[in-house]
Amino acid sequence: MNDDMAKNILVFEEPFKDVPIYRVMHVERLIEILILQKLTLRQPKQWDDPFENFMLMSGNRRERSYPADIFGQCWSLHEESDAMWRIYAPEKTGIKIKTSVSNLFSQFWIAPEVSDTSSRSCYIGKVDYFEKDLLKKVAMMNDPGLEKKEPLNGKFIATKLLLKRKEFMHEAEVRLIYLDHFDRGKGMLSPTLSSLVQLSDNQSFQFTVNTETLIEEIMIDPRMSQHTCNAYTYYIRKLGYRGPILQSSLYSLE
Fold first, then answer.
1. What residues does each domain of the chain span?
2. Has this prediction a pTM greater than 0.85?
3. Distance between CA atoms of 252 and 193, rounded to whole angstroms?
């Protein structure tokens, strides 16, 4: 991991490189990832908590704008959590994938969809949780470069997306964040973050990964029947995944 990458890893204390992180999803989404060899980031406005966008869009109002698109993806530091299975896989067909902070961010950093830009505004960071009143005060803070009319600070924007209300502490989130300088229909908008542009209609951003090295382990929903678990394991193997595939024993009495 080079020094430029390390500067864009936010809120983590050293050593952050081998910190394991997890993401729960529907099994169909994992199959899509294995087939396409791509991960998908989404605009924060699609996240469930409306306070996310309040944090993002407050401040920096005068003659400033955000880049064409801001995208993020949420992971968790929790290895096992009843709440995460129930929230993100309510139909009991969930899959949890494991990687590490450095593994995920290294693949993000070198992805052709990201590294071809003139300025890579990509970040990964641990979410901090605070009382709502304090977050409102932080949300109204302006970018320190505002008065000097400097280019909008990408790290300042990313940091705002790493603040959340304490009621969500159970998620123990880690977020991958990308500030996209492109309008996919019009080409490059600006080499800096200071341009006045409109948010585009892009709802998601995909980047290429090597799932064989990215996904260190697959854990199958503890509520899934053994027959269904075996069927999905067989299909995942047919798609070329050779790493560990286990079923969570969260609800097992053994």
1. 3-208
2. no
3. 51
